[in-house]
Amino acid sequence: MTTDSHCHNARDPFELAREAADVIADRSGIATHELALVLGSGWGGAADLLGETVSEIPASEVPGFHAPAVAGHVPVMRSIRIHGTDRHALVLGSRTHYYEGKGVRAVAHGMRTAAAAGASHVILTNGCGGLNPEWAPGQVVLIRDHINLTGASPLEGATFVDLTDLYSQRLRDLAHEVDPTLPEGVYVQFPGPHYETPAEVKMAGILGGDLVGMSTTLEAIAARQAGMEILGLSLMTNLAAGISPTPLSHEEVIEAGQAAAPRVARLLADIAARIH
């Protein structure tokens, strides 16, 4: 398994993103998608509540995208006209995870494509483990900041990007207008695909983490480089190893996601409708 960012794609990643955006525009008939969404485990149903689906394109037919490696992820690009507006959302149903070994460029490709398609805002979602024993599975947490433990970055060469306010305070305030009870937390990305050990979870907590998962941070950095405003939402599907008295299973994560799905879908659709 290799994670070198250049090995799978020698082409300029921004050129590939423009090509992908052109295909989406041609196939969907929509010149600009103002908002992009990445729907992680448990979040898929939100797309149906956002508005009218104008177009669906199999991800494998868009340059640079692959069919997803994870059960529960839907391999289509959806163009949705957001309810009551003339704005369009691009739902990227084909997230590439770092642990798939396709390289960091492949992980960042969705964000670069969204930016090339005109998106000025992106909502990144995930299913994750929680460190706060007061949070029950099904709790949605706004990502306030992150810790990237993958040892990788989507930025190449002498590209210096400020991440001070990576997760937009403005967008978190909008989310709090929809649900004032939403807690905020720091998301810690481990490389995966194995779940974290209890000692690693303890380390994440000592570092200041509240949530542990295997996605999101590299995409957020790529989105910031592309100039997008970012909202991060985590669905806590389980208590992390060592916090939870029982062993973790992917089935459990999927089940918790399914149980919370109608509620989180409504929440996400309501937040997305407010983003301009």
Q: What's the SSE blueprint?
A:
Elements: H1 13-28, E1 35-38, H2 46-50, E2 51-58, E3 76-82, E4 88-92, H3 104-116, E5 121-130, E6 139-148, H4 169-178, E7 184-189, H5 198-207, E8 211-213, H6 217-225, E9 229-239, H7 250-274
Parallel strand pairs: 1-4, 1-5, 5-9, 6-7, 7-8
Antiparallel strand pairs: 2-3, 3-4, 5-8, 6-9
Helix pairs in contact: 1-3, 3-6, 4-7
What report would you give on this structure?
Pfam families: PNP_UDP_1 (PF01048). Keywords: Glycosyltransferase, Transferase. Belongs to the PNP/MTAP phosphorylase family. With 276 residues, the protein is of the alpha/beta class. The protein has one domain: Rossmann fold (3-Layer(aba) Sandwich), CATH 3.40.50.1580. The protein has 7 helices and 9 strands, in the order αβαβββαββαβαβαβα. A 5-stranded mixed beta barrel has the order 5-8-7-6-9, surrounded by 4 helices. Strand 6, helix 4 and strand 7 form a beta-alpha-beta unit. The longest helix is centred in the last third of the chain and has 25 residues. The radius of gyration is 17 Å and the shape is globular.
Q: So, the CATH homologous superfamily?
A: Nucleoside phosphorylase domain
For the biggest sheet, the summary is: 5 strands, mixed, barrel
State the separation between the terminal residues, measured CA to CA: 41 Å
Query: What class do helices, strands and sheet pairing give?
Result: alpha/beta
Question: Taking Cα atoms only, what radius of gyration do you get, to the nearest Å?
Answer: 17 Å
| Total E-strand runs | 9
Stretches with pLDDT under 50, minimum 5 residues: 1-8
How much helix is in the residues? 25-40%
Quickly give the CATH architecture.
3-Layer(aba) Sandwich
Strand order of the largest sheet: 5-8-7-6-9
Tally of separate helices: 7
Q: How many domains is the backbone divided into?
A: 1
Q: Specify the CATH class.
A: Alpha Beta
The secondary-structure element order is HEHEEEHEEHEHEHEH
SS strand fraction: 15-25%
